[in-house]
Amino acid sequence: MWIGGDRLHYQKTFSQQECRWEGKGFVCLVVPGQGNSKSFPAFNMTKYKSRWTQCRQGHNHQSKKESLRCDDLHLLQKAGKIAGLEIQPKYTLLKAFFYYNEKIRPITYTADFFYLDCKTKKRIIEDTKGIRTPTYLLKKKLLMSKLQNDTRTRFIET
Predict the structure, then answer these.
(1) Residues 14 and 58 in one domain
(2) What are the E-state strand segments in the chain?
(3) In what order do the strands lie in the sheet with 19-22?
(4) Are residues 72 and 35 in the same domain?
(5) Is 65 part of a structural domain of the chain?
(6) Do 106 and 34 belong to one domain?
(7) pLDDT on residue 66
(8) 85/117 Cα distance (integer angstroms)
(9) Integer Cα distance of 98 and 96 in angstroms
(10) pLDDT tens digit string along 80-124?
(11) How far apart are CA 52 and CA 73, in angstroms?
(12) What's the CA dihedral at 59, 64, 70, 74 to 10 degrees?
């Protein structure tokens, strides 16, 4: 069975006879039952080098920054500063439709957090960002256009 990896892991685990370079990374031969298959770790790093992290409440988040923010928001909720905390709420920006009998999927945006600020009585949609990708910027603009007449809801980026 051939599985992919990066150069750093290749140097640490496999010999030159077991691996070959293919375009973006090494492809290594793993023989089940030979002991080398269990030494190959799962690559859980994303495209932008963030790692999935678990917060204290047990939720899985796409980055350490998002995980720490989740912990902070749970503390604020216990203190009574915010209420109704939701993790990973999904918003439909454009509904699904048919174009010449072809179904076009909806455009959705998944924020990191949603909560009610008890002091200002506003609903907050919050996104914790490290790298602002072009796709994110476009979806953010679409979400803000949907919220432009809603004075009770605010979008913030941390």
Answers:
(1) no
(2) 2-5, 19-22, 25-29, 53-54, 60-61, 82-87, 90-94, 97-99, 102-104, 107-110, 113-117, 122-127, 153-157
(3) 2-5, 25-29, 19-22
(4) no
(5) yes
(6) no
(7) 92
(8) 10
(9) 7
(10) 999 999 999 999 999 999 999 999 999 999 999 999 999 999 999
(11) 18
(12) 90
Domain that holds residue 18: 1-43
* Prediction pTM value: 0.68
Q: Tell me if 4 sits within 8 A of 26, measured CB to CB.
A: yes
| d(C-alpha 7, C-alpha 28), whole Å | 11
How far is C-alpha 86 from the geometric centre of its chain's CA atoms?
15
- Overall number of domains in the chain: 2
- Residue-wise pLDDT for 40-55, tens only, equals 344 455 667 778 888 8
Q: What's phi and psi for 109, nearest 5 deg?
A: -130, 130
- Do 32 and 96 share a domain, yes or no? no
Structure tokens at 53: 């992290």
